[in-house]
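Hello,

Our lab assistant flagged a job as stuck in the queue for most of the afternoon. It eventually completed. Since we weren't sure the result was trustworthy after the delay, we are filing this so someone can double-check. Below is the sequence as submitted and the structure that was eventually returned. Let us know if re-running is recommended.
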Amino acid sequence: MTRMPYVPLAILTLACLTSLAAAAEPAATTPKPTGTWTGTSTCVGNHPACKDEVVVYRFMPIAGEPLKVRLLADKILAGKRVPMGALEFTIAGSRLSGEFQRNTTHGLWEFRIAGDTMEGTLVLLPSRELGRRVSVHRVSDDQVPAAPAIEDYGP
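-- returned structure --
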């Protein structure tokens, strides 16, 4: 019969607590998308109507939906924020995704949060062609032009 090596109870307890703390850490540091973000949205591919933009995104919580947020998207024109629309996103860890249909355009926005920066893409459907790349960073509201009224984004 083999004997188990002697391990003092204090060392064993410390090892277990360290493992538990490490396992809990990712949940405690899950990025939160809520807040104001600004940066660039750049056209990709051959889309003559597409224009590169400076954008401001407001991600707001949705009551009763802890894994969803509402995006209010603006572009900056002549120093003012101009509403582009609202979209609901699903949160999965550090990733956000939201599909939309507007007139003849069908697309999928996907973002990844890393601290106070977020990178994203717009993929056009059904072709799966890349349409835009977005690079934004978190800011306070006083660092960007005043926000339009929420009613300006539609239902």
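-- support follow-up --
The delay was a queue issue, not a problem with the job. The result is valid. Residues 9-28 have pLDDT under 50 and may be disordered. The beta strands are 35-43, 53-62, 65-77, 80-92, 95-102, 105-114, 117-124, 129-139.
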